[in-house]
Amino acid sequence: MIAMHTSPIAQPGSGDAGGMNVYVLSIATQLARKGVDVDIFTRATRPSQGEIVEIEPHLRVINIVAGPFEGLSKEELPTQLAAFSGGMVQFIKCNNLFYDLIHSHYWLSGQVGWLLRDLWGIPFVHTAHTLAAVKNAYRAADDSPESEARRICEQQLSDNADVMVVNTEDEKRELIAHYDAQECHIDVITPGADTDLFTPGTDRNTERSRRELGIPLHTKVVAFVGRLQKFKGPEVLIRATAELFKRDPHRNLRVVICGGASGEASNVQSYHELARELGVTHRIRFLDARPPQELVAVYQAADIVAVPSYNESFGLVAMEAQATGTPVVAARVGGLPIAVDHNVTGLLIDGHDPATWADSLGELLDDDERRIAMGEEAVGHAAKFSWAASAQDLLKVYEEATKLDMSECHGPRQAAGI
Ligand code: UDP
């Protein structure tokens, strides 16, 4: 696997680390447990990382030095694609390795995967995770667009990958509509949630979680979890919170926003400022991004998890929250209508108007019976999505891909010297 721009073992929830990191690590772990040898190649960002990190039997992360460890933004990483590809080739040659298949994640890695596929004549599977054309179609009015250069690179991958793996049927439709992708080259693999880690808490878990987070026990809590950037819509929740307090200044509510800066450096500050401008600073607690083991407490402490994203290829946070028995109020975009069963495990909202969000959040906060029933349904719903099942489906895709005749359009394996 190739995950060039962000390591699968980086802390998700800030910077460029999010759902893709969780996806790659979770699915690779499950593949490894089925006996598949998986190496995940990523760009080294710290000298202390070492070249090879053994995660568990059959699974390694390989840190390839390509450019300086620090100081390059994701937007600048295209300058390191040649160095990264060269580093991968060198590592593979020196260690006398041979792979049956390449699976790249995100368009930067896709460009590397495409090159190596042609070099080695092995099948090339690509997962985009997000697509520039789709992000641009759904972005907030004041969010900056994804570059045309990225869209062009994604077009090349859609034209050249042997298989494109997407999260949902909706994403498949988007890939066909925006990139003219061939339907027969697309496979849908639904992501999962770690239901061993994200479990419903007992009342005592919830109490402990709230104490740890400094939230009064008899307060209603709405949580947002994820990278703090416009695309994830945290400002929608902040504005909806202000609207709820405008309607009822005595409402007993705390909002928890858990995640770190992502994209523009000023982002986190701008959310604090927005809360201040709207007079809800004391109603909102900002928490730093934390490892999944500590995130469980945030989900368990919440009465509702809000996912006001402008687009989500799936929305792992929605699934994880439900696995802990917390209903989700989410935007009706991307994969969220699959992740959330509307009116059963949560609510789906059209658009991002803070007043509409306040209506739905307020109604559900005030209806204990309905909310608790939704939380109970949510656990069963999340249980249907496991990473083990995703890996099983992916293995089938790999098996089909390895049957493809690679001799016609690509060079012979010998040419790679491995
Ligand atoms: N996450 C985390 N710690 C945090 C915030 C988020 O580990 O403080 C993880 C979260 O558990 C989820 C992922 O980051 O698995 C975010 O995935 P999602 O699909 O919701 O959003 P993306 O980052 O892909 O846009």
Automatic annotation (TrEMBL):
Ligand binding (1D-myo-inositol 3-phosphate): H5, D16, A17, G18, G19, M20, N21, K74, Y106, T130, R150
EC number: 2.4.1.250
Keywords from the UniProt entry: Glycosyltransferase, Magnesium, Metal-binding, Transferase
Source superkingdom: Bacteria
One Pfam family hit: Glycos_transf_1
Matching CDD domains: GT4_sucrose_synthase
Record: residues binding UDP-N-acetyl-alpha-D-glucosamine: Q11, P12, G19, R227, K232, R290, E312, E320
Binding site for Mg(2+): Y299, Q300, A302, T326
Transferase recorded as keyword: yes
Gene Ontology biological process terms in this record: mycothiol biosynthetic process
Reactions this protein catalyses: 1D-myo-inositol 3-phosphate + UDP-N-acetyl-alpha-D-glucosamine = 1D-myo-inositol 2-acetamido-2-deoxy-alpha-D-glucopyranoside 3-phosphate + UDP + H(+)
Xref: InterPro entries: Glyco_trans_1, Glyco_trans_4-like_N, Mycothiol_biosynthesis_MshA
NCBIfam families named in the record: mycothiol_MshA
Protein family membership: Belongs to the glycosyltransferase group 1 family. MshA subfamily.
Subunit structure: Homodimer.
Function: Catalyzes the transfer of a N-acetyl-glucosamine moiety to 1D-myo-inositol 3-phosphate to produce 1D-myo-inositol 2-acetamido-2-deoxy-glucopyranoside 3-phosphate in the mycothiol biosynthesis pathway.
HAMAP family: MshA
Protein name as annotated: D-inositol-3-phosphate glycosyltransferase
Lineage of the organism: Bacteria, Bacillati, Actinomycetota, Actinomycetes, Mycobacteriales
Gene field: mshA
